[in-house]
Amino acid sequence: MDKTNLLVYSSGKPQVDDTPFEIVERKGVGHPDTLCDTIAEKVSQAYSQYCLDRYGIILRHMVDKIALSGGATKVKFGGGEMQKPIRLYLNCRFTRTYQKETIPYLDIVKDVAHKHFGEVLPLLDLDQWLMIVDNTHFAPGPGVVYDADGLTQNERQFFFEIPQKEFAVFHDNSSRSNDTSTAVAYSPLSATEQIVVLVETTLNGQKFKKLHPYVGTDIKVMAKRIQKRLDLTVCIPFVAVHTPSKEFYFEKIKLLANIIKQLVTSRFGQFDVAVSINTRDNPNKSDYYLTLTGSAIESGDEGVVGRGNRYNGVIPFTRHMSLEACCGKNPVYHVGKLYTAISSLISDEIFRLTKLETYVYLTSQMGRSLSDPWFACVEVCGRVATPTECQMIEEIVEHALANANETTRKIVKGELNLF
């Protein structure tokens, strides 16, 4: 990369754990936005792997605009019934034919969606209450000019030329960015960020679910830290078939609040912790967070890719972060995904080697080489980086950008979690 476009500097800012306050959120695996992110990313991985297995290349696709539209239910303590299906809208793009073969993209989507919904919402009858609306299109995008033979260079490459190596549509020195965009990553997670992840993953863990089957998966954790005071507001859906009465409901809310407080204080004893659960409940109006399947997607809520957790599993309102929806993007040259993954790897490696709290910014320029970003910046906090550390940081950045192909491979294999 052009080193004149790389800036490494010490900002003098305190580390995030030493700041006066933080606000952090995490949306659980059953939240509609998380469902969208996860399905989009798994569809991209499955489609990419299908293409690699069959053709040796990853074909063009974009799955980062899918959405979920909630169904409708009639719920009561002890049970209920679905009344309207959940809809998964495929607002996306696939290469549907290659080498005169039809690619079964819709079968790939159905397999991924049914498997994931089956794991996260096992009480949902997928055959009856999940509809997939195929809004896919196959337009090549702007700037595509046809030659005299009626073909474009992309069509000639993808449909008539046989690739000569395994990753023929992976990166090489001429691979170019598809967009002008900026990705932001940082390391490490703050204590507050670790806490919201700990709470959600514990409550949605298999071991916890066996002991507390009434707890659904559409859990949301919001943390507010002021100095060493930590307040948690947790939204926990109850599963109606395992919740026989409102007395049971309120008894378990008290139990869960105690469990969460003990969990946090046992690992993060520096905080004075308070826990609130389902604060919207209104017994006078029979308003409780009671669900049939464990997620609000069953009853009118909606989900969209990119509105949920960032690449590192949290929504850090008081940190710098990218608004790119990385899930579902093509892992070869879509910088919204690729630069998010690379910047994350860079920040993790810098922290591992130097223990410096680090922010990494990668800005692409449409048409520019992926290995040569328009601007790259590494900001370190807490103390000043030494000259040796600055040189090490530059080498880490260059190495990560030069090895984008390996990052793509890890994304496709699911070795990098981007939601």
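(the above was protein one; protein two follows)
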Amino acid sequence: MDFNSIFINTAQALFSPVTIAFAMAALGLAMHFGFVGLLNFGIAGFMAVGAYGYAISTLTFGFPWWGAFIAAMVASAIFAVILGIPTLQLRGDYLAIVTIASAEIVRLLLLSTTWIETTGSADGLVAYADDFRSINPFPDGDYGFGPWNYTANQFWVLIFALIVLIISALIVWRLTHSPWGRVIKGIREDEDAVRALGKNVFSYKMQALVVGGMIAGLGGALYVLPSSANPMLFATSLTFFVWTALLLGGAATVFGPLLGAVVFWVLQAFLGSLLPAMAEVGLLGGLSSAQAGALRFVLVGILLVLIVIWRPQGMVGDKRELTFVK
């Protein structure tokens, strides 16, 4: 086995735009589930709206790069309002069913050939990041050290994504430690009690849905920034990957989703390199490399089950604030 290649692939997952995009999505989901208690299983839909909001506003409407990011957030906010008006009265499993269906509706609309000139249908969209790359402050060359080597464009995307993530985390931290944050945490614990105190529970839920949706939409824009936007990137499995990252780190925290995203993708990269290498030398009982690569999802799923059993609040969560076994 090539242990050097395994180490390089694993280390690269620590600092990559995909990891940061998942951290953004998990942070937005933390606002929905961790702080308000909304079972949103449609986070892939918010990411898709943000990604295509960025790409379409650039290619179709000629927005500058900064205007495209604003358009991604506005599109995600509008999607949150459209989704929230008829569904926020639902609770628990019913809300989960509606949100997962809404994300699939978004994906199927993007796959439709009706608006193929705008969305690209199954081919997706490309070449929408030229304006963003044109402001790259780093001259051509290689950047990084050790296993972390980037071209100038890759390094610029990474640095920009890190800045957006840090700003977003600070905003969420400030919101959740404000009087507004105490109200939404109260809604998570007992919304009837909060309603009895004269608070408009629906309004607070909608505000949290919009804020979390905008953060997830930005995550979607960052997710497709290095390459292309394709509807298949936003399949239902993406939602469960984000949920895994959130629950690994800790749902009712700000730092937990960030840590969970890193741990999730480092595990994926490590197992995705190690298991096929083990299969090639016959250590997995005759499994092919492709079968061994898919096995990593099973192992990550088992890890999640163990965490739910032994540490339900996640790696950095507070058991007194939120667990899976109230």
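Reviewer note on protein two: The chain has 13 helices and two strands.
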